[in-house]
Design a protein that fits this description.
- The structure holds two protein chains of two kinds.
- Chain A is α/β, with parallel strands linked by helices.
- Chain A contains six helices and seven strands, in the order H-H-E-E-E-H-E-H-E-H-E-E-H.
- Chain A has a five-stranded mixed beta sheet with strand order 5-4-3-6-7. A two-stranded antiparallel sheet of chain A has the order 1-2.
- The longest helix of chain A has 18 residues.
- Chain B is an alpha+beta fold.
- Chain B has a domain of 100 residues.
- Chain B contains 17 helices and ten strands.
- In chain B, strands 2, 3, 4, 5, 6 and 7 form a six-stranded antiparallel beta sheet that branches. In chain B, strands 1-10-9-8 form a four-stranded antiparallel beta sheet, covered by helices on one side.
- In chain B, a hairpin with a 2-residue loop joins strand 2 and strand 3.
- The radius of gyration of chain B is 27 Å and the shape is globular.
- Chain B starts with a helix and ends with a helix.
- The chains are: A alpha/beta, B alpha+beta.
- The interface between A and B is large, with 44 and 58 residues.
């Protein structure tokens, strides 16, 4: 490591900061003036769940496999969460409210540790019937989720019917219930 | 009258900034070089006028002049004195005026005292400073005038946001502003030096005190902010990688790199291009941070400061200044002549390596902060959390700390590894022993905390090595500053690693009279009862905690309910011992009448903030050492000039 950066003619490298800065500007201008539509429809809607079989993320609940979604019955929610994710803690009361109304919810814990998941569930409540442990985000990516939290409506045949991106707010609950009802109607 | 006077002084200061820019730019041409004499006095006068305008605003707030819109919207006649004062800058307009005030006064101060730099470069620097100030004057006068009158005086003020009625938060923004403005001076120096192609040791020496000063304030701001988040949010965490935290961390990382690069340029006349670029980047990061926080483009806990139109204005300033400076850099970098060379094993190399690592961390923090924005532009919303930031920043931080242990004992220009065998072997042995001890005594421990626990003691030993074999009374203050600063990093690292490795948590539903074991503490819930504060009511738990069977200390965690505006806040209770902290939070009442209580025992966690304070202290010592030396030199040259003059007669 000598003064290579200065002994050579700098050439194109000196334009790099300006180029990166231009990229930054473009990004924030898009973010500021064309904020994304929060209710995007996923490319995975109408497709079957990919095959997976996850070990349990906590000792209190079993793990999660695709087969469990394909046994007929009511549509279920599949919630992608993590103990380190703040919006997931914020949406916990809404999930609890849904569970209280009889909605069955399964969880996938992303890049998490057992003790952290247990702490999270102890603190914010545990609305889940089953929780799979997805340490490498493989299932997360396979079902078209790129962040946490996200919630999928999956019908009795294991088909994804709706994808909710971001935390579920109080005002989103009717929408989720409607999508569940639609999924139930569609599956019969 | 006072408001009109303040506004008039602000307009005059803006006009002087135009004059400072035009005269400074013209003075760089040979034909109009005689204009150079105007620039310094104008810069000083401009600083003075803005200071008077700011004093006028303070006067209006202290006297609660309710005919002024800003005062009526943000103050109240019955507020305590200190919050009337803090109310001056506890709002958007006032804080922008404060920013311009600090910036222009700093510019005036540079004009007053800076004598080492070539006159031409200094003039270019002051012109650059005026150019930056002008954008903020335009922002103030055109889009956020603090002196606007109401058609009818308001009967009473609306009061200050209760969240901001906290003594710590009253002084939090000024601390960060001083940091950001200090970096704006460094930015102006970099632009001035690029304009006159005069990048050398004199430039680095002139810039260094400003970078050091800014860096001290940023260090204090981040350390205090982290502690504030730790005790008020009630989650027991001390750093959340929240966009606003990142916005304050990024300028700090750039300033740290700039500080070290400045030292190389001042001492060895090497790393010219690199130092100039970091000067531009450091201020860019402060502006990017301000933009991200103020525009509300990223969701965050600081959302009360949000306004999209102001975001657009800051974005425009950002595009002009940073884009302009980077363009200038791209055009001029190839004409900056090559600096001094150095060997692979040398102090310069160690500093270059660490600078690259710091910039690496800066890059990953920036990418992580902006990534949700990027995916949102493609229609997907994500949250990037600690699983990304922690390991990826560690990839850069760990090699950096290892090199940091060796760098200060290396010689400038060229050194031989053999000369410092002992200085490498001792810290390495300490690290190996610590790693072994950690693995044998406390396994299983996660990788990162284990590495932190191993590196911290080795780094602490290594940081003291530059003092070995020196006459301690003749060692310069700046060296002490470096030693204490590096020691502070080791102390903070130990606190972080210990918190990560050894924290124990207990979540329990308790009836009064129940006890729980939390680490070495036995905690007993004695009672729960209501208490009332000035603008809140709360349920307060009385918890007796006894350490390892010793006498009990009583803690009072609260769950507060605020009436106006309505809101809840948990007030955690902390018990600090020399070897850690007990953290108690009162949660909700369960259906069976038991209370949710959360306790953490966090061994050595206060060391994180002690370490931060040490780092700032190290910076302060270095600054004092540098300034004292500069003053001595200035006095000496004046004396010589005076003698010569007398002999000449």
């Amino acid at each position: 490591m000598s003064t290579a950066e200065q002994s050579k003619r700098p050439g194109l490298a000196v334009w790099l900061p300006l180029g990166l800065f231009a990229g930054f500007l473009a990004l924030v201008i898009v973010g500021l003036y064309w904020p994304a539509d929060r209710e995007v429809s996923s490319a995975f809607i109408g497709k079957p769940l990919p095959a997976f079989d996850l070990p349990p993320a906590t000792d209190e609940r079993p793990g999660l496999a695709t087969a469990q979604f394909q046994q007929g019955g009511k549509p279920r929610l599949l919630n992608v969460f993590a103990s380190w994710c703040v919006p997931c803690a914020v949406e916990a009361p809404q999930l609890a409210a849904l569970a209280k109304q009889g909605v069955e919810i399964d969880g996938v814990a992303i890049r998490d540790r057992k003790e952290d998941v247990a702490r999270f569930l102890g603190q914010y409540g545990n609305p889940f019937a089953r929780i799979g442990k997805d340490d490498l985000s493989q299932v997360q990516l396979a079902i078209g989720s790129s962040g946490v939290p996200e919630t999928f409506v999956v019908d009795g045949k294991g088909i994804i019917r709706y994808q909710h991106i971001g935390d579920i707010r109080q005002e989103d609950i009717p929408l989720i219930l409607r999508k569940l009802a639609e999924a139930e109607g569609g599956a019969q | 009258m006072i408001a009109e006077l303040g506004l008039a002084m602000l307009w005059m200061a803006a006009a002087l900034a135009v004059l400072q820019l035009v005269a400074g730019a013209l003075a760089l041409r040979p034909a109009t070089a005689h204009l150079a004499g105007v620039v310094r006095p104008v810069a000083m006068l401009q600083g003075l006028l803005v200071a008077c305008a700011f004093a006028a605003l303070i006067w209006l707030f202290l006297n609660t002049d309710l005919s002024v819109k800003l005062v009526a919207e943000n103050s109240h006649s019955a507020k305590p004195f200190i919050f009337k004062l803090a109310g001056t800058w506890g709002n958007h307009e006032g804080s922008m005026l404060m920013w311009v005030t600090i910036m222009s006064m700093a510019g005036g101060f540079v004009a007053l005292i800076e004598k080492r730099l070539r006159e031409e470069t200094l003039i270019a620097t002051l012109a650059g400073q005026a150019f930056v100030s002008l954008g903020f004057y335009a922002f103030l006068l055109l889009a956020s005038n603090p002196f606007t009158r109401l058609p009818e005086p308001a009967p009473e003020g609306a009061g200050l946001n209760p969240l901001l009625q906290d003594i710590g938060l009253a002084f939090h923004p000024p601390t960060l502003y001083v940091g950001y403005v200090g970096l704006s001076i460094a930015f102006s120096f970099a632009v001035g030096a690029l304009v006159t192609r005069d990048v050398g040791p004199a430039f680095a020496r002139a810039m260094r005190p400003w970078v050091l000063g800014a860096w001290i304030f940023l260090t204090l701001g981040i350390t205090a902010g982290s502690y504030w988040a730790y005790y008020t949010l009630g989650w027991g965490g001390w750093w959340f990688w929240d966009p606003v935290e990142n916005a304050s961390l990024m300028p700090w990382l750039a300033a740290t790199a700039l500080l070290h690069s400045c030292s190389v340029l001042a001492a060895r006349n090497a790393l010219r291009t690199w130092t100039v670029m970091l000067g531009v980047i450091a201020f860019s990061m402060s502006m990017v941070g301000t933009f991200l926080v103020r525009s509300g483009i990223l969701t965050s806990v600081h959302a009360f400061a949000v306004d999209p139109t102001r975001g657009s204005f800051i974005l425009a300033l950002l595009a002009i200044y940073i884009g302009g400076a980077l363009l200038l850099f791209a055009l001029r970098a190839s004409t900056v002549t090559e600096g001094a060379r150095f060997a692979v094993v040398s102090r310069e190399s160690a500093l270059v390596f660490n600078n690259v690592m710091l910039c690496g961390i800066l890059g990953i923090v920036l990418v992580g902060t902006l990534y949700p924005l990027l995916t949102e532009a493609m229609g997907v919303k994500v949250s990037v959390g600690p699983p990304y930031f922690n390991p990826v920043s560690a990839v850069f931080a760990i090699p950096m700390m290892l090199v940091m242990a060796v760098g200060p004992v290396l010689r400038w220009r060229e050194d031989k590894g053999g000369r410092i065998t002992w200085q490498i072997a001792v810290p390495a042995a300490v690290m190996a022993a610590a790693l072994l001890a950690v693995e044998l005594l406390f396994a299983p421990i996660n990788l990162l905390p284990a590495l932190g626990l191993a590196i911290a003691p080795g780094l602490a030993v290594a940081s003291l090595q530059p003092l070995v074999g020196r006459n301690l009374r003749r060692t310069p203050l700046a060296t002490y500053g470096m030693v204490i600063g590096h020691l502070g990093i080791a102390v903070a690292l130990f606190g972080m690693a210990s918190e990560g490795a050894f924290s124990t948590e207990r979540l329990a539903a308790m009836n009064p009279g129940d006890s729980q074991q939390v680490g070495p503490f036995k905690v007993t819930l004695q009672d729960i009862g209501p208490v009332a504060g000035p603008n809140w009511t709360a349920l307060e738990a009385t918890v007796a905690a006894s350490y390892a069977g010793g006498a009990a200390t009583v803690l009072h965690p609260q769950a507060r309910v605020f009436a106006n505006p309505p809101g809840n806040r948990t007030e955690s209770a902390l018990l600090t011992r020399w070897n850690g902290q007990l953290y108690a939070v009162l949660g909700e009442e369960g259906e069976d009448g038991r209370w949710q209580m959360r306790f953490w025992w966090k061994p050595f966690v206060p060391m994180i903030w002690y370490g931060g304070a040490l780092v700032a202290l190290g910076g302060l010592l270095a600054l004092m050492g540098r300034v004292a030396r500069d003053v001595k030199r200035l006095v000496a040259t004046d004396k010589i000039a005076w003698r010569r003059e007398r002999q000449g007669r």
